[in-house]
Amino acid sequence: MNRMKDIENLGIDLLELDNLISKTEKKKSIEELIAPYLAHWRWIVLSVVLALILGLIYLRYAEKIYMVNSSIILKHQRDARLRGGNAVFSSMDLMGTVSNVDNEIEVIRSKSLIRGAVNMLDLHTSYIVKGRIKSNDLYKGSSVQVTMEQEDLDKLKSPLTLTVVPNKDQSVSITHSINNQEKTTKINHLPALFSTSAGVLTVSFRSETKPSYGVPIEVIIRNPNSVVPRYRSNLSVTPTSKTTSVLNLRLNTGEPAKGIDFINTLVNVYNQDAIADKNREALNTKDFIDERIAIIDRELGDAERKVEYYKRSQGLTDLQSDVQLSLQRGSQYEQKLVDVSTQINLVEYLDNYVREAGNKNKLVPSNVGINDPTLTATINEYNKQILERERLLRTNTETNPVIQKYDVQIEALREAIGTSIASVKQGLLIAKRDAQNQVNYYKGQTGMAPTQERQFTEIAREQQIKSSLFLMLLQKREENALALSASANSAKVLDEASVTGPIKPKRIQVLMAALILGLLVPILVVFLKDLLHFKISSRHDVEKLTKLPILGEIPQSETGAIAVHENENKESDEAFRMLRTNLLFALGKDKSVVIVTSTEPKEGKTFVSLNTALSLAMLKKKVLLIGLDLRLPKLHEYLDIDDSRGMSQFLSGYESDILEIIQPSKIMSNLHVIPSGKVPPNPSELIAREVFDEGIEVLRKNYDYIVIDSAPVSLVTDTVVASRVADATVYVCRANVSHKNNLRFANELSEKKMLPNMTLAINDVVNYSLGYGYGYGRNAKYGYGYKKARKKKNKIDIASLINEKMENMKKGKK
């Protein structure tokens, strides 16, 4: 049985036919894709026009956003290479720490600095003149100025709104709300005080602005803290590169004049804040030095009075000279002893200051004359961390992880300072002990010297220590005062604030967005309408969900279970001829067993099985239709035949010869039927028996085609088990009944190769359009344009042509 050869003998160039129909189907696929949208083209055009009109209206009345630009350079006041050593004050740089660009960016964007700029410019107060559609903020163009005390501003919980109307007689009428009732008050002379529930306002005229008499000005006063976030969110501060300290300041605003003033004022506030920060360390050092000078001054007076008293009491006027040589050598060590003692005193003073609990998180004086570079460097780093912590606290709380990190670092540095002080003191004590030993040695050389000389030397030494320390502190106080008076700005303005724009809204972008939106809205509506339809309704739906070849579409049957009749050309006849033709391609050479199944019941698999078998029988072939739905058999009802003997009896062993249970179909003489028989308790086990395979082999030898009506595949495993004997599978889905998930399930079966040579048949199509697709090893589709009530004369009925030629050839051979 070489059916492929039969088809080739029709004289049709299949390659040429394949190319022609593929091109037609490709064009048809594109048309099907856009057809749902083209059907609503009027709504799409209307939507686009309306969207463009709305876009133009938006461009006309939307607030225009401008960009205000400025650039500054951060001046690094300190050279880190000068830190440490003996040049303590010069390296300390009381002007402030080296600027860290990232930190300075956060400082500039901090709420406290922005709040300062808002308060300086009164940006918390708006002067609005309402137009027909949009309102205008007068800013400095307002002829009336309303101010409120800072204390009252900070207490505002909601905006305070007034309506001020300047009059020609230089008076103003003020309307405001009291207890939800509007009250108008006339003020004859300005400036004047005006009381409200939120506080006292000062109302005055701006001398530089000409008033617009009779024009209401809406004055809105807000809490500065509620204005700060708006400016902060629109402000960006970015470095020009990673290697420079030049910053670009940009502010997006709908009011260019306000933006320019805000940027310039913000830079000024930043400089003032930076200067105040830099001076704090110097002021703290000044207080420490002044305190120490007062103490040393008292101690030095006491030492000088002791010297005076000793000389007077001992009657001394000059030192003896008989031990001059020893005294000269010993004097060097005594001087060293004086220096070391001075350092010890300084270290002790500093140690007491650091240990005092009240000085925690306060700046530590870093230049008090201690000649230890390590200690000085540690104090400098500690002061730097203290300043950074205080600066970050302006924009954060103490619970912030960054602040807590600084707290840990500061505590570690404080402990390091204590350790360094102890280490320095220990070293100084050793040096003092060595110097004292040398002094004692040379004193031994002067054992014959008068006791008065020794006593006087001890008293004078104390006086010299206090005097040296006093002079050093006086010098440091002058140096500190010089540094304090020489404070300079931290930021230098490179480019004054200027306006660019408007940057928003952009006309092209708005119109393009309107165009796209006008297209997308109706398209999306149509798409969602299609998407929310969960059942298949047409071939197009099926093709979108699966790549399985489609044998054909079967229209709604108006003639009951039997939809195929000889010598008739109804839609159902043509549909099953198309399905039959494509099935021949799918089966290929020497293949004859077709199993018909579906995902679930009521999709029409028995209907398709019966009429497919009838269509094959019309080729004058010997065809057998087997009812293998052993759980819910319907085939015997369709054909009105006896179901007492069937497949279940044969598989159970009650019938030994499968040929004995074959019955005539009562429709065509060459179509025979094996009903399913009585419903058994174990259908899957019966079908899995070898007797089933043996029976099918017997039937293959006796029939040209075998069509098996099997059970739904999603409910039971019967079909999968029985598919081992099949050469092809016809998977039936039903329009407006089968869910789209059914086809996804079919895809899984195909991917896992659980059913052989799977093809699809679409049953019960409402808007029937005859076409066919053959995809044995590929996914090509064919169609020849048969449509209900719209059949065109110039279309070629390919399936009918092939069938007709095959029948004529058979008759000719006979």
Question: What can you tell me about this protein's structure?
Answer:
By secondary structure, this protein is of the alpha/beta class. The protein has four domains: 3-34 and 549-813, P-loop containing nucleotide triphosphate hydrolases (Rossmann fold, 3-Layer(aba) Sandwich); 40-62 and 505-531, no CATH class; 72-77 and 123-263, no CATH class; 321-449. The protein is built from 24 helices and 23 strands. The strands form five sheets. Strands 14-21-20-15-19-16-18-17 form an eight-stranded mixed sheet, sandwiched between helices. Helix 9 packs antiparallel against helix 13 (451-485) and helix 10 (324-355) packs antiparallel against helix 12 (401-445). The protein is elongated.
